[in-house]
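User: We ran a pulldown and think these components assemble together. Before we commit to crystallization trials, I'd like a predicted model of the whole complex to look at. Sequences follow.
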Amino acid sequence: MTKQIDNKSTRREWLQKGLIYGAVGTASAALAGIFIDVWFSASRFTTARWVNIAPASTIPYDMTVPFPDKKIAIVRKNSRLAAVSLECTHLGCLVTATGQGFYCPCHGSFFGSQGEVYSGPATRSLPWYTVRIHKNNIWIHTGSKQQTPFWVTIG
Amino acid sequence: MKKKTPQPVWINYLLLGAAGVFFLSVMFTGWKAYPKQNHVMTQYIADLTINLTGLPIREHCTSCHPAGRFPLIISRKKRQDKPHPDITPHLTEELGCTGCHLGEGMAVDPNISHGLPGMGAREVLKKKDVQASCYTCHKLAPLQGAKLAWKGYKLFFEKGCDTCHFVDGLELAGRYGPELSTIGTYLGLKKIQESIKYPKNDPVNSIMPRIPLSSSQIKAISYFLKSRTKNPAHLTPMARNALRSEKKVHSGQEPSTGQNIFKDKKCMACHQYGDIDGGVATDLTFIAQMRSKSYLRDYLRNPQKLVPGAIMPVIAMSPVEEEKILDFLVTSSYFTLKKRDPKNLYMALCQRCHAADGNGMGIIYKNLSGLPRPFLKNSDFYRSVPQSRIIKSVESGIPGSAMPPYDKILSKAEIDSLLTLIFDSFIGLKRDDKKKFATLPPEQKNPLATKHTKKLYMKNCLRCHGKFGTGTGPEYLEHTPRPRNFTNNVFFNDIEDKRIARSIYDGVPGTSMPPFKTIVPDNELWNLVTMVRMFSKNDD
Amino acid sequence: MLKSTKQQGTKRNFIDHIHPPSVRSRTLRPWTTFGLGIAALTCLFVLFLTGITLFLYYVPEQSKAYERILHITTGLRFGNLIRNLHYLAANGLIIITSLHLIRVFLTSELRQRYLNWLYGLVLFTLILLSNFTGYILPWDQISYWAIKIGASLAGYFPVIGGFVQNFLLGGEGIGPETLIRAFALHVGVFPPLFILFVALHLWRIRKDGGLTHPSPSSDTTLPANPWLYRLEFSVFLLVLSVLLVLSNFIDAPVFERANSLHPPNPAKAPWYFIGIQELVSYSAMFGGVIIPLFMLAFFIIAPLMEHSQKQAVGFFMNKNLWVKAIFILIIVSQIVLIIIGQWFRGKNWAFIMPF
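Assistant: Here's a predicted model for the assembly, 1050 residues in total across the polymer chains.
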């Protein structure tokens, strides 16, 4: 190689290099993005749906009726209904409804009537589901968890 | 590297170009492949697993059809989905969609998810068509909402479909046609309907007759057949096995009168008897007057032996039942006609096969072996047939074909007048107008089919008459009437060598058989006759 | 002009390791190799990358496989793109490696490089087998019946045929085992073998002294770094671009669910075996056994039939014309037969015009 490197040629060289690195780099990043999107796409498929729980008239006044097979409980206050998850936020045991709130038999977590944590290893409160009354049936949407009770009125 | 070598600078520009092309193609791909129109693809996709009779089924259907009952996805573009009609006691949440509606539940593409084109086995069933799924789970019994499917089940028996087609768990069935126990898994509704309506469409050489049915009847039967699937949900594998082994061919009860058996066996689903007409096969009202009882018995036991190529299946019945049916036919067979003039006789006896206008396309002509000879525009043929042979065909029938002997029910004078009518009004030929043929080459004594003869046959005859002389060569469906079946020994036993030689030598006018005068050398003609004889002898 | 940035030092990376330090300027000319080897490697790279991605979403189970394919092609964002890329790269690999094989046979002195020729043949066989096993995985009508035909073609071989059928299909015919076996071979057995033989193949080139060249060399030499690297990288990018662009327009086929009772008419083998199917339609013994065996034997021993002529390098430069003639006859006849079988055969394998 000759040692004489004039400025013009060096600049062109750097320009070319920059263009190539830039184009290939950007394109590779985009391509990688496509692949990463596919790899993480599995989470875009949701099992959330409306589930029929029971006829609304079967829930007595001011009672918490558990439905262990669906892992939820329906709370009724006067003519208002809400659905709370019975899955302990600690390790997923089934909590039992007591007069004051909910108690987890596995590790002794206590939840209040609003689902908030009183004590025990659990740190997050029990989530509440969106509820709907359709043709006198209670339906909950399994994909809609929220921190505060979602009340509906039986009308 | 002190020596200065020329540097391949072009590589730099190639690399620059390649980088540019790569950049552009990635950008283009990203832009093109990212879903834009299908807004559901960019959102969450409903992914439900429904446990239908122990077999988990995964579905994405509700991504686009949120109104199973409630909207699952409230998308940016509002979708106006009507709510699913109330189907209590069923629950859409428990049954899912594809259990009843079919379709490809895992696809999120408007074409693929609704069942790909092809046989349409998974094509989506809409509205009233959904009842085609009811009997995949429910037992065969009257069901609310599946009235047409139930009607189809009834029709399947009424129309005698079970005479040929076997369906699991049904009382008795023949195995003459393809088994239909799992047909619903493989064919779509439309394909089933088409197969019933135009049986000869696919495959073209199907022998299934076209049963006269209204389109609503065809629809009903297709609903029933669509529910015959591989793994019916109401049956455990054990129960399915038990069904399979259950063969109720004979009811075990003392057979009732011949007439009842005649009805039970659904003879009239195809045949005509008195006023009842199946519209598929011949008239049996006075059959016993024309044919002897022993002929009828032999025919019932093996139709293809007496009329090779007949499509009638062997009907399963006990000897007692067989005897009673035959007795019934013999005792109640009568041919009555108030005015026995030629026109009325033609309409009563000939028209069913040879057609009212004499073109050989009567209502049942397609279901007969070899197809009936046309009269209309067929003067060439009748000019070449001697008078005695025509009279003989009517009087004693044509052996090995559906043409019965008429000498028992018609007098000689009546036959004569009938023939005059046919010649005058259809053929348009005087009865004594006959073609004169050149003399045949001298008959060779004791000719043998040589290698050369076989080559000659392969070259000239095989196309229509087939490799084994069955009359089903590669081109046989293109010719009407169909090429002669050489294995029809009943027919060939009745005719002379001379006639075969004549047919080869001069061809058969009015058919696709051309004269081979110039192609077949004189010394090979009689060898070919021997070859034809060999085919018909092979059978017996 | 770009400066060669790297000096040949002690710090040599992997890329440096499998390349020679300097190459002849002839090597860099595009018509010497057409870049087919790198193109094939690029396809293989794409296949591995997309294959791993498809692996995440596929289930090799009869009742689920087809639905999973529908899930990938329609439900998954960019899933169809990935599958198309995999499909195109797989079919492109067959075409590219065939061209590579032709180029090598016609230009090189193979007697000296017989071992690498054999490695190449092994790789080509692996490619065909991988394609064949991959073809069955969607478990739709076209793949089911193509595999059925392909397997029955294998069955014509007297001794090996039964073995191949039993091993590849997990039985005499196609059943639930076939899918698991095809999957296991496709993702578990062939990819490692690919890596092994590609490594051997590349190592052997280096060992044999790079490309064949006319000797004594009158050619000038150039540093491999950067020239060879840049050229190879350009080919890599171009092939990748072609695959990407094509994958937007050519969809990997999805047909109806596999249906063992209703064969499509005509049922055709995968396109790379259609030449053999066409031959079998004339004669099972000749087309299915003798001609393929002859072809295989020819490919294995052809380099040995050539007598060495050191200076003859380049298309038709050496004088073993009759060996080349047989080779060209085989290639051309296969191409013609594949074209006839693919486009000129209709129902019942009858001759039709495609337009």
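The interface with chain B takes residues 1, 16, 19-20, 23-24, 26-28, 30-31, 33-34, 44-52, 132, 134, 139, 141 of chain A (CB under 8 Å). That may be worth checking against your pulldown data before setting up trials.

User: Thanks, that helps.
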